């Protein structure tokens, strides 16, 4: 039977340890067995899910991957949803994707059960999967595999649809560029509703037969202890985490710092991504550990597109050159394709890694492609052969702590506050977060402090979307058309 290449490759590493944690290990064979059981349960009396959407709410680890592979092997489309999202955010993802089933582990099933019942969505608990194995359908690589929600320039996230071929191309590009092998070992503490964790870490590691050590969250003390013990050959994190690691190393005793730094030095590769890495952080990390961080550039719609070189210069403030199989060009705002260096333009990407479409949004899909090139909305300049990101074409995207956030979505939530008459949300430069979520508000009465606003936001916005800075103003700056001008809002701070 023809099967997905990621499954076939797992068979060739069947006895290798795929996942380990403080309490358990799981081999590739156990992932294959678990995914076959889940696929059979998902199919029931059907022969093929025929791209039915299955939302995935499972804690990162072996069970997550068994569930992901189970959805794919049954012919379904995986819709990963955020573990820490609010109920309205879950409801939006389920209704927009038209998911008919939520596949959850026991720890999370209870949290979403009421919503599933209200929406008439079936809930299946991974730990309760039982029954005989069934023949599984053949899955063509051009079938749709995943809908990953990403915030855009509208107030509601869009579902990015990728095929199995897209995912395979994204993984193969990174495996080639960064020389992954079955000997690699990497920690995993990033969320698995985000492309960084799904593709760059889990996807590449399991494609290669490598081993992943899972942490339920970023546990600084536990991770540094494992680094001290030479547990890893690779390390991938967002800039915020590198800032926290620098602070921890600087605060450590001399002997402890030397032991941890030695562990970092012996790693073959350390990567930063999901947000711009400040050059100062890049240089601090090199001074502390001797490691030159490899910064790369990508997004949900295209996977990774540009990377500093594994063998070669890793330039602070630059994201590097196109990855294998990826075409990149710059286009000026006034239309022409830029061929010279030192001229800014929009990054446009073409190749097999680029997504298929936005789910049920043909107009948005058409608007974001130009002659087969995906328009990223990011401005960059080519300098001595390397791309340097200059910022978003849209001021309504905030990159904070590795997340890409819609300012408009946050504004819509804040306007529900009883004291807020008007608001504008922007991102301001921040050494720890990349950009800090910042709100300027006009009140209709009373007074408002940041602490009370943050308390009010809990349960209404995910933690990473809650404003970190606040300014109460008498009026918001507007242009002649009456539209709030966000560059002028930034000047208020």
Report on the structure:
Among the domains are: 5-139, Rossmann fold (3-Layer(aba) Sandwich); 397-491, ANL, C-terminal domain (GMP Synthetase, Chain A, domain 3). It is 33% helix and 27% strand. The chain is built from 15 helices and 27 strands. Strands 16, 17, 18, 20, 21 and 22 form a six-stranded antiparallel sheet that branches. β26 (434-443), α14 (450-457) and β27 form a beta-alpha-beta unit. The chain is globular, with a radius of gyration of 23 Å.
What is this structure, in a nutshell?
With 493 residues, the chain is of the alpha/beta class.
Annotation keywords:
single chain, 493 residues, alpha/beta, Rossmann fold, GMP Synthetase, Chain A, domain 3, 6-stranded antiparallel beta sheet, 5-stranded mixed beta sheet
Question: What does the secondary structure layout of this molecule look like, with pairings?
Answer:
Layout lengths: L4 H8 L4 E4 L4 E3 H16 L9 E5 L4 H12 L3 E4 L6 H11 L3 E4 L1 H14 L2 E4 L18 E7 L7 E6 H15 L6 E4 L6 H14 L2 E4 L5 H9 L5 E4 L1 H13 L2 H12 L3 E4 L6 H11 L4 E6 L3 E5 L13 E2 L4 E5 L5 E2 L6 E6 L6 E2 L3 H7 E2 L2 E11 L2 E7 L4 E4 L2 E4 H8 L5 E11 L3 E10 L6 H8 L11 E4 L13 H6 L2
Parallel strand pairs: 1-10, 3-4, 3-5, 5-6, 9-10, 11-12, 12-13, 26-27
Antiparallel strand pairs: 1-2, 7-8, 8-19, 13-14, 14-15, 16-17, 16-18, 18-21, 20-21, 21-22, 23-24, 25-26
Helix pairs in contact: 2-3, 6-7, 8-10, 9-11
The parts where pLDDT drops under 50 for at least 5 residues are none
* Separation of the first and last Cα atoms: 62 Å
Arithmetic mean of pLDDT: 94
Provide the helix percentage. 25-40%
Major sheet details = 6 strands, antiparallel
* CATH topology-level fold name of the domain at 5-139: Rossmann fold
């Amino acid at each position: 039977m023809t099967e997905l290449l990621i499954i076939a490759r797992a068979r060739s590493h069947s006895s290798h340890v795929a996942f380990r944690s403080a309490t358990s290990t799981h081999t590739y064979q156990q992932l294959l067995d678990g995914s076959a059981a889940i696929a059979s349960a998902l199919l029931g009396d059907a022969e093929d899910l025929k791209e039915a959407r299955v939302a995935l709410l499972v804690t990162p680890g072996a069970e997550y991957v068994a569930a992901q592979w189970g959805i794919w092997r049954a012919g379904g489309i995986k819709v990963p949803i955020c573990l820490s999202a609010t109920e309205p955010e879950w409801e939006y993802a389920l209704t927009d994707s038209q998911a008919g089933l939520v596949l959850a582990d026991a720890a999370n099933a209870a949290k979403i059960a009421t919503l599933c019942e209200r929406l008439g969505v079936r809930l299946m608990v991974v730990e309760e999967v039982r029954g005989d194995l069934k023949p599984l359908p053949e899955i063509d690589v051009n079938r749709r595999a995943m809908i990953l929600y990403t915030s855009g320039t509208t107030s509601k996230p869009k579902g990015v649809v990728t095929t199995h071929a897209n995912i395979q191309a994204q993984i193969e590009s990174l495996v080639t560029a960064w020389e992954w092998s079955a000997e690699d070992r990497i920690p995993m503490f990033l969320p698995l509703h985000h492309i960084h964790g799904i593709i760059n870490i889990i996807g590449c590691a399991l494609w290669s037969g490598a081993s992943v050590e899972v942490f339920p969250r970023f546990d600084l003390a536990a991770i540094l202890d494992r680094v001290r013990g030479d547990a890893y050959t690779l390390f991938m994190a967002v800039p915020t985490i590198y800032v926290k690691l620098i602070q921890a190393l600087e605060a450590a005793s001399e002997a402890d710092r030397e032991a941890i730094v030695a562990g970092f030095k012996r790693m073959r590769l350390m990567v930063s991504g999901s947000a711009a890495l400040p050059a100062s952080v890049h240089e601090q990390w090199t001074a502390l550990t001797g490691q030159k961080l490899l910064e790369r550039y990508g997004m949900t719609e295209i996977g990774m597109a540009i990377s500093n070189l594994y063998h070669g210069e890793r330039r602070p403030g630059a994201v590097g050159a196109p990855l294998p199989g990826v075409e990149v060009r710059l286009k000026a705002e006034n239309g022409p394709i830029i061929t010279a260096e030192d001229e800014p333009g929009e990054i446009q990407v073409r190749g097999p890694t680029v997504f298929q479409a936005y789910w049920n949004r043909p107009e948005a899909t058409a608007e974001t492609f130009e002659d087969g090139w995906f328009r990223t909305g990011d401005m960059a300049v080519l300098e001595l052969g390397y791309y340097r990101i200059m910022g978003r074409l849209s001021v309504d995207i905030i990159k904070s702590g590795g997340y890409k956030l819609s300012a408009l979505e946050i504004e819509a939530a804040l306007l529900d506050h009883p004291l807020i008459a008007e608001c504008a949300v922007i991102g301001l430069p921040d050494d720890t977060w990349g950009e800090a979520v910042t709100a300027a508000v006009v009140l209709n009465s009373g007074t408002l402090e940041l602490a009370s606003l943050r308390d009010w936001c809990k349960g209404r916005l995910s933690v990473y979307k809650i404003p970190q800075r606040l300014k109460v103003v008498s009026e918001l700056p507007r242009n002649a058309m009456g539209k709030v001008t966000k560059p002028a809002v930034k000047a208020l701070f």
